[in-house]
């Protein structure tokens, strides 16, 4: 599954850019929501996601919630018809409670961890989650360098939870995808590498091929 991040796209053309990426083979849209508090950057929130949903009724929307109070945005994002609510566990006291509220609101649950957070932190919550997002850059900005030293987290999760959806996000593109897919990631976020490519369709298809090849080799 390949989900482009539109963070580094022309946000004045959010709808056209999103539709273009879906038409070029993207499986879902990864929407980066930042509150200027959990991360030192601001993007957009549920009003924009809702408008985008009105224009793109069918695609799978994942919101990557880089926010200090993820509980605050569950209802508005559900109203905006978000499919998957992926939040960072670092600022949260009661992770199972947030997971329960997300599910109750009708969305899938993603648990995200920053590079400095051990994968042990999520292991007690996997029964409540549909996906774990391993950040491969410090959250906050697109276009950063991929952190290969996050791959042991992915590999450990894949080894111990063969059916878990594992997403990587940050600096992933044609030159780094093989490390991710070999470690066991099956949901791939790619921003700059897709958006800035001369041929985004072939980038999306090469990312997919790498993931599929790794899955085939394991089976
Ligand atoms: O969540 C984030 C950054 O915080 C990501 O979704 C990036 O925006 C992906 O962009 P690239 O690193 O692929 O350019
Ligand atoms: Fe993201």
UniProtKB/TrEMBL annotation:
Class of the enzyme per the UniProt entry, highest EC level: isomerase
GO process terms (BP): carbohydrate metabolic process; pentose-phosphate shunt
Gene3D superfamilies documented for this protein: Aldolase class I
Gene Ontology molecular function: D-ribulose-phosphate 3-epimerase activity; metal ion binding
Listed SUPFAM superfamilies: Ribulose-phoshate binding barrel (SSF51366)
Active site: 32, 169
Binding site for a divalent metal cation: 30, 32, 64, 169
Name of protein: Ribulose-phosphate 3-epimerase
